[in-house]
Amino acid sequence: MISTLAGEEGTIELLAFAKQIDLQEKWLQKRGTHHEHFDLNEERHLRALAAGAKQVDRTQLVLYLRAKRGR
């Protein structure tokens, strides 16, 4: 799970959303980089979708990551 926002703004958004679905901040991977993310198991994935997360395909994910890297 990623934020589409870059930098600190993205980290804040991602951590706030993670808290809503009971993810611990210490599980955040590659913090502070454009690859910052949470890995989700099936249960947490479904919880994230129910809370408003959008599922994207690999192509869209790459576009988001490139945009974040470029900012």
- What is the average of the pLDDT values? 95
Biggest sheet record: none
Figure out the total of helices: 3
Tell me the β content. under 5%
The percent range for helix content is: 40-55%
Which radius of gyration do the C-alpha atoms yield? 11 Å
**Straight-line distance between termini:** 19 Å
State the low-pLDDT regions, or none.
Answer: none
Give the beta-strand count: 0
- The structure class reads mainly alpha
State the order of secondary-structure elements, H for helix, E for strand: HHH
In total, the number of domains comes to 1
Shape: globular
Furnish the topology, listing elements before pairings.
Elements: H1 7-20, H2 42-50, H3 58-70
Which descriptors apply to this entry?
71 residues, mainly alpha
Compact overview of the structure:
Helix content is 51%, strand content 0%. It is mainly α.
What does this structure look like?
The two termini are 19 Å apart. By secondary structure, the protein is mostly helical. The longest helix is centred in the N-terminal third of the chain and has 14 residues, at 7-20. Helices cover 51% and strands 0% of the residues. 10% of the residues are buried. The chain has 3 helices and no strands. It has one domain.
